[in-house]
Amino acid sequence: MQSAPTPEETALRGVLDRWKEAVDRHRPDDAAALFTEEAIFQGLHPYSVGRQGVAEYYASQPLDLAAAYRVVESRSLSPDLVLGYLAVDFSFSQRPTLSVGLSILLRRTDAGWLIDHYQVSLLPS
What we know:
Elements: H1 7-24, H2 28-32, E1 35-42, E2 48-49, H3 51-59, E3 66-78, E4 81-91, E5 98-109, E6 112-122
Parallel strand pairs: 1-6
Antiparallel strand pairs: 1-2, 3-4, 4-5, 5-6
InterPro entries: NTF2-like_dom_sf (IPR032710)
Protein name: SnoaL-like domain-containing protein
């Protein structure tokens, strides 16, 4: 029997399900809209600050990129901040799946929960 998701997991999944859809459909502007205007973004390329850098990062990704994630840990840092650590598999049609650790910080805004910090780490193989 699976336990009910925590409020933190619910917030994370609410944002990350939309992020996954944007990544899978190669919609960089939709992905960027899930971030705050001042978000710090660290994918596997040099970091950027703000939605424009997020959109450029996802626009540069292969069209066949797909994401699958699992929430590993989550914490409420305050009523308006949620920390999440996730295991993410980025799959491609022509190359091996890339497994990473993803730390994100969600901030509750007038527009709802948005990603304020995104940090990818390669996992040891």
